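hi!! sorry for the late reply, been swamped w classes. u asked for the two structures so here they r. pasted raw, havent cleaned anything up. first the sequence of the first protein and right below it the tokens
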Amino acid sequence: MALDPRPFGQAFTGDALYFRDPVGERIEGRTSVSWTWDRLLRLCGLFDVFDYGDSAIEILEQFRDSLAGHCAVDEAIDLSTPLVAGHCRRRLGS
């Protein structure tokens, strides 16, 4: 195996993005963060921007009761669900 002849540089680079998991924290009974409805919706928005729609949907479903008075939860789930053959989830009958 030959060594790399370059005197400097990185072999690999990468980016990482970390989010808190309010669903996991709720299941484990941790209460270090107060998950208010506005924090939950902001986190759902960030998940959607970074293409983690499944995580946004999990939050919307798990915290449905807390969010119901502040947003249309079913509509938010539909907006976070990728289109299948040009149709949203509700139109497919699921």
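now the second protein. again sequence first, tokens right under
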Amino acid sequence: MLPQTSLEDARLDDDIHQLNVEIVRLAFFLNIDIKNEAVVERLLENNLPNDHEHFYKLATLKGLILLRGHIHRLRQEHGVPDGKSPLEEEIFQRLNLGHYENEC
């Protein structure tokens, strides 16, 4: 477990922002609707196809989403405000990622 001060560190907020931006950027590149919970659950629960053209990008996106979820849980457990989710980031709004329909 992290000390309380680590979870409240302003640098961590910047890191979370960058993590969110990278999640949105990869989702845009891969044409994955991260606003659609079923699509995200399918990405997280299913094994990634080894022959997918962008296997490593999919694997990275999956790992980043899992990391963001872990950070969210840790902060929630310690009563620390979590800040913006990837869906609340300005880049998500600008790219309008909610309009995609994709199967992972």
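hope this helps!! also noticed smth abt the second:
Helices lie at 4-8, 10-30, 37-45, 55-77, 90-95.
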